[in-house]
Amino acid sequence: MRKKLAIANWKMNKSRAETREFCQQLRQVAPDLTGVEVVICPPFTSLDVVAQELGDTEMRWGAQNCFWERQGAYTGEISPLMLRDLGCSYVILGHSERRQILGETDAVINRKLIAAIEAGLIPVLCVGESLQERENHRAREVVKEQLDQDLRNLVAPAGGLVIAYEPIWAIGTGVNASSDDAQEMISFIRERLAQYLGREFAAGTPILYGGSVNSNNIAEIMAEEDIDGALIGGASLQADSFAAIARLIANA
Ligand code: PGA
What we know:
Blueprint: E1 5-9, H1 16-29, E2 37-41, H2 47-54, E3 60-63, H3 80-85, E4 90-93, H4 96-100, H5 106-118, E5 122-127, H6 131-135, H7 139-150, E6 162-165, H8 179-197, H9 199-204, E7 207-210, H10 218-222, E8 229-232, H11 239-251
Parallel strand pairs: 1-2, 1-8, 2-3, 3-4, 4-5, 5-6, 6-7, 7-8
Helix pairs in contact: 1-2, 7-8
The structure holds 2-phosphoglycolic acid.
2-phosphoglycolic acid (PGA) is lined by residues 9, 166, 171-172, 210-213, 231-235.
């Protein structure tokens, strides 16, 4: 059976004090959260707070980005080894906000992915099409192209890999993809993954949906065969709404 995941992507939100408060609230419901791996991805500046507050629970944490080199003259960058040093298990890579706002290319994402795996992190690779690409019936082609390039030269990582299908038009808009559309794309992604990294690896890889997930729509999304959890932005900023989503993922 594949692992189920509820990953909080806080983006550029929360002070250290707010992070501590969130973690303390989440701890209170932690005994409830079995059957799902809960992962918090705060800004770099709060990773140590999450580590302190959740270090003795089953919950995990990760970063929202990293660089592709281990160390050196790269002003402003954070190495995957530094993330390991902070106890991170995961790193989100290729989020559409980084692709669109920071100009990250698939070639860059590919380098980061390989470096993260080498450092012992589990990458959460984000892929997804824009509204225009969907309307032009190019969604599959776009996602295939992203996967082709992002996973180039990758050997099936022993520590595993997570993929998140996040249609750009669904991120932060309040308009989620229909469960049918999400399932269709996610089963396509699993099929591609089988071609790159083998059927067994693909069958064991968690593939998540992301984009306007909340406690009202997650149950329907999770009813789909290939969807193993969610990457949650806005609704992950409050401990109670995030915990409610995680519980629904666990019970699906
Ligand atoms: P959202 O963000 O849940 O606020 O739509 C999801 C994401 O960007 O990962």
